[in-house]
Design a protein that fits this description.
mainly alpha, 0% strand, 2 helices
Length: 71
């Protein structure tokens, strides 16, 4: 913008970055859960926990990023 403040909108590249961040957090949580399951000898327990943590972390990061852009 002309007054030196950034434009408070989300453009296409921002949305792609948000989607990648959300997907990355979910995949990372699931992979870590699978690794812990493999080491611990459990079946879906830590995979489900890792998936839930990944979803929560991705949602929080998504919310924080959108909030900072819209401020």
């Amino acid at each position: 913008m002309a007054d030196g403040h950034p434009d408070p909108t989300l453009r296409g590249r921002d949305l792609v970055g948000l989607g990648g961040m959300l997907a990355g957090a979910v995949v990372l949580g699931m992979v870590l859960g699978l690794l812990v399951d493999h080491v611990a000898g459990t079946s879906p327990a830590f995979t489900l926990v890792g998936l839930a943590v990944g979803i929560a972390a991705g949602a929080f990061a998504f919310w924080a990023r959108v909030r900072s852009v819209l401020r």
